[in-house]
Amino acid sequence: MHEGCSGSFENGKEVVNKIRMMGFNIQYVPMPFEYKCDCGEAFMYETFEMNCPACGMTYGVTPCHSFDPANVMAAGEGY
């Protein structure tokens, strides 16, 4: 089940499901960063799972890949 940092994901729902299962979704990323949502709103990305405050889009990133905002994946609004 746990593939370490070698796991790959097809979409954001898989990422969010994985970090929820592992209990990482509410933990803080090592270095928060500003992230621009698909709706255009920018917000501070602080935990491995975040929701856009403007539209409710859910995003996720794994701990191994949280060093780069390009690794954040959208899971869907209100996911």
Task: Provide a descriptive summary of the structure in words.
This protein is an alpha+beta fold and 79 residues long. It has one domain. The chain has one helix and five strands, in the order H-E-E-E-E-E. The chain has one helix at residues 12-22, and strands spanning 28-36, 42-47, 49-51, 57-60, 73-77. A three-stranded antiparallel beta sheet has the order 3-4-5. Strands 1-2 form a two-stranded antiparallel ribbon. It is globular. The two termini are 22 Å apart. 20% of the residues are buried. The mean pLDDT is 93.
The spatial strand order of the largest sheet comes to 3-4-5
Order of helices and strands: HEEEEE
Compute the number of strand runs. 5
| Overall tally of domains | 1
Spans of at least 5 consecutive residues whose pLDDT stays below 50 are none
Q: Strand count, sense and closure of the main sheet?
A: 3 strands, antiparallel
Q: Structural class from helices and strands?
A: alpha+beta
3D shape: globular
Instruction: Note the total helix count.
Output: 1
Mean pLDDT, to the nearest integer, reads: 93
Distance between the termini: 22 Å
What is the beta-strand fraction?
A: 25-35%
* Backbone CA Rg: 11 Å
Tell me the helix content. 10-25%
